């Protein structure tokens, strides 16, 4: 159903806003479409069949398309963090006032149903200049915008985007004032998790480090080793779990205490925590084996530590990480895993092994198989 003929919005002053307008002009894939409605009330929206879903401000789902329609609103800072705002939504709030509360000019553009652009803050000009620039000095009222700037750069740096110097100054101000520290860990992870899935995730961490926010939000990463970690993170190949292993690669050089502190500090999901722990174990294996890589005992220890026998799906991505640093070791480990995994408990049960003796014999034969294979190379 087209907007022009949609009876649910007929007669309403409606505008497409935000990311859909921005990305369409960049030639970027357009995801969800968000709309702003000017000059009406919640009661009128419900009368037209819209379903109210906004808890903190009036947002409604279209009765047919289920896209979000928000009433035009303004915000006023009342407390710390990104939630400390007083929301004002009423029929007298203009479109320009609604757009003024947004973070960057490229996100403060709107489009009429006819396709005509409404751009009071120069978003199209900044798109053409490949520039992330704040809409107003109110940027400093919301510390979440520091993370959003970093995430947008992770998405668009490959297109030549950079952050305007005056916006960088405000980001440094937010970090130095301590306001960034009021962000809840779950919100930090939401932005970080999204950034890990972007084209250039290194831009996210570099940007946070440059403005001082990384030292506040993820202290274990804010060290001179960051540049090397980001370079290693870029080695992770495309795949379903790319974001997971990028995070793992980022912290694989840390000790156990720092890994725990980092993941606790951002409330990382369990899968991401575990991936970083496994990557760290694999890095330590490389360091331990050193020049005597054909060490069957050490290889068995690694397979046991990553629980390869019960979680075989872990082996391939860890071998891929190792291969970036030591291809020969990765080949040895792949051979060892392939041969050792063929020795199954069922065969030993048939030979009469039971209880602890079964486990001991299984481990012995697996290690012996690995040793014999490596000696023939």
From TrEMBL:
Gene3D superfamilies: Beta Polymerase, domain 2, cca-adding enzyme, domain 2. Its cofactor is Mg(2+). The keyword Nucleotidyltransferase applies. Pfam families: PolyA_pol, PolyA_pol_RNAbd. Residues 160-221 form the tRNA nucleotidyltransferase/poly(A) polymerase RNA and SrmB- binding domain. The keyword Magnesium applies. Keywords: ATP-binding, Magnesium, Metal-binding, Nucleotide-binding, Nucleotidyltransferase, RNA repair, RNA-binding, Transferase, tRNA processing. Residues 14-133 form the Poly A polymerase head domain. PANTHER family: MULTIFUNCTIONAL CCA PROTEIN. Belongs to the tRNA nucleotidyltransferase/poly(A) polymerase family. This is CCA-adding enzyme. The gene is cca.
